UniProtKB/TrEMBL annotation:
Region Disordered: start-end pairs: 1-22, 57-80
Protein name: HEAT repeat domain-containing protein
Compositional bias ranges of the Acidic residues kind: 1-16, 66-78
Gene3D superfamilies xrefs: Leucine-rich Repeat Variant (1.25.10.10)
InterPro entries per record: ARM-like (IPR011989), ARM-type_fold (IPR016024), PBS_lyase_HEAT (IPR004155)
GO MF entries: oxidoreductase activity
Organism expressing this protein natively: Haloglomus irregulare
Amino acid sequence: MSDEDAPDDADSEAAEDALAVDVDADELDERLDGVAESLEAAATEADLDAVAADLDDVAGTVEAADLPEPDEDAEDAEDPRADLEARIEALRGDLEEARGPYAEDVVAAVEEAQGTLTDAEWTDRGESEAAEAVATFLAAVEEADVAVDADAGDTPDAAVEALEAAAAAIGDAGFDPDDDAEPIAALVEAADALTSALDDAEVWDDLSVRQKMTAEGFYDRLTSENRKDFPPELSVVRIAERENNPERVLIALDYLTSEFMESNCIEALRRMGSPEAFDAMHERARKRDRSAIEVLGKIADDRAVDTLLEFIQDESNPPLQRTTLRALGEIGSEEATQDVADRLVAEDPGVRARAARALGMIGDPRAIDPLANRITDDDDDSVRAAAVWALNRIGTERALESAAAYADDRSFIVQDEAESAAEALGKRQKTRA
């Protein structure tokens, strides 16, 4: 197309004017009055469909109408298009309210109730309340002449199955929104009541901390005779430790937030070394909680090794390294031998000493040479003594020979450990002879 053939702006405006509908706001208002009257008189779904069609037609006309634009400079300027569009939206809302009720609405509400039953963490009381709410709804369904071969039962799973059967029966009943408006309305009301009752039924989060702990049996062993500590929860923790029952201690650790109770709980778990505490302590240990790492050492579960090995690399935190090395030694997994041996040359002498002792507790003969080298090369006698102790602990003949060689060492603490190794080696050789 050439520039001469292209339409100019004036031509475009003329085309738009030609498409505009020549109707004023008063006429459109009158048409909306007619739609409102038809809506008020509508008695069937077909009537409402006709009203919806008329409203769509008026809305299209308003969109195409050449209506005056408001004066932007004038205060409270009239905007006939905006006023008409607002009235159309209001009528659409009235139209939606006039429709139904429908059986599909009931089915949707029942399906939502099924989700609530499945997802909620019910208390024992809440389960009973939920089952009662479902039973009441099923009775309302029966009153609407819809047969449901199901019972609410006394568990959420049974109630879900009953509602599934009810939803299917309502969907198959063939309700007509015009002819069966009354029973449908009754079912909608029953479904609303079901939703409200389930919302009001007791769930776990409704309980106080003490109520939750009571429900989990935390206080079952507490009596007036053995309640000797304050707070009473401390008495329960101490009773649980005496009875080697980590479950109650873990309940307290889960719910009680004070540093005092947390410290007492972890100390009790450390003394018990119960495998049942592994998951809770491992989760805390991942956050570099040294107390939890100590408990993992007492539990001595190999699953903790990978997590703990990461911490002994942190040269910026010697206290964490020392605690972790001790735990690794107590766990005793040879998987840790090389990583622990690498700490024998750490900058902090306390870390080097703890690494040596950990190797002794692990007992892997592969650590003999690194430990012997530490006795020769280290300038800290506590580290050297720890290395001799570790060789004594490994206890093979070669390990004992390496340790016994320092029975005349200048350092008393090294000499003392070496003499123990020499004595053990002599007994072994005598027995063999």
